[in-house]
Amino acid sequence: MLMPLRPRVSAPLFALIFIMSATAEDKASRWWEEIPESVVNDPTTLGLWKFTTEVASSSGQSSHKHEGTIKGATWKGDGKFGGCLVSDASHPPEDKPHGFWVKRSPLLSPSGPFTLEMWIRPKPAESFPPEMRPVLVGSKYTPDNHTGLMWSLGRESSSGKRVFQLSMELGKRSEDWYPEPVQLIADDWQHVGFSYDARGTVSFFLNGNSVGISRKEGAGTMAPAIRELALGDRIGSTHRGFPGSIDEVLLSNGLREYRPLKAVSSSSRPVFRRFSKRSENLLEFSNLTAAALEGLSAKVTVPGSPSYETESFSELGLEAVHEMRIPVDSSLRPGSYEAEVAITVPGWGGEGTHNTTTTRIPFVIVPRPLPHRMPVVMWGLGGGNERCRRGNSSVEGSGIYPFTWIETKLSDDMGSGRIGSTGNQRSDTRRA
């Protein structure tokens, strides 16, 4: 067992158990490296555009050889890996195509879970005004034609950030998914992508890190597009070109993973009774890479206790799963809370970099049940030196003190403040 550091409390707040599990099929993509040639003929690859040379940019480099045409954009040799597609803003200043347009194909409208990723390099602010809402990939046309998709960027906020937007057509309606705002750096290559599980959940990524998960109830598979697929522009009139460079666009079947670790909570929203003796959240995380990981560290934040860091693990083996038990402070007031575990993997993302996978676990503290027998004292007025007994105690004072016992059973809605009373009541007026 690997023993982490513990905070100075009477009970341990962190435990780690090592378990072996077969997860060989879940290999995280080394996203910062050039897409290898093996991906070209991979059965999961639906489309791949590397823009390696100007000649190669006219057709997809996957085994499907999707035909395409550059419209308004240009090819340059200063891509992330070889050449790249360079586009400009469209409307305004001029409503013309500025991208790479791929001939329509059923393969470009996945009928199940899929992932879309690319490298982008935005132009400086003078060529990328804050009000621009460029499209990275689009096969969606008019709002009332519910086919295809559009992956775009929103307007720049006062803080300099933008929000990715995925609009997907589901046949009879359209849905939009949004992650957290992101900071895109001008003249710098950044890897962006999203995965859709075909059941309403979209996961967005920036440089291998999750930037948000968005869910839509009742959403299913994408309705097949009836038009071309545009890279770096919007299909149809009112073009919205991306002012920057694009390289290595990959559309693939399935949910690709960019993080080295996958975390899964045993419960989506655990509920604990206040002051319960054994209260803990359970989190499992697994190694998704093709090799052992070294130098891992974790920071745990639990409401009601100070945050703390564990000591670095010597190694997290290949195809390994770890179980993390995070005790809950059940003395917290009733309400909703959130625990957080951040695991850092050095070197994932390139030399001198690291990846931090943050997992948040919401939980709820509910009130404890009240006793079934509740004494109620009704104070009266009177003269003299009197005493009223309450249980085994007594109170001195003056006057007559009627004393009432109420025996009751609590109803299910006790936590809402309403008391359901069953049983007997008896009232005694006693004089000492």
How would you describe the overall organization of this protein?
- The chain has 432 residues and is mostly beta strands.
- The protein has three domains: 15-24 and 259-366, Sandwich (Immunoglobulin-like); 37-253, Jelly Rolls, CATH 2.60.120; 373-430, no CATH class.
- It has strands at 15-20, 45-49, 68-71, 74-79, 82-87, 99-102, 114-122, 135-138, 149-153, 164-169, 174-177, 190-196, 201-206, 209-215, 229-231, 244-253, 261-265, 271-273, 280-287, 297-301, 308-309, 320-327, 335-346, 354-366, 373-377, 385-390, 393-398, 401-407, 425-430.
- A hairpin with a 4-residue loop joins strand 10 (164-169) and strand 11 (174-177).
Quick rundown:
The chain has 432 residues and is mainly beta.
Number of strands: 29
**Which band does the percent of strand residues land in?**
35-45%
Give the biggest sheet. Answer: 8 strands, antiparallel
Segments where pLDDT lies below 50 for 5+ residues?
Answer: 1-26, 383-432
**CATH topology descriptor of the largest domain:** Jelly Rolls
Summing up helix and strand content along with how strands pair, one would put the structural category as mainly beta
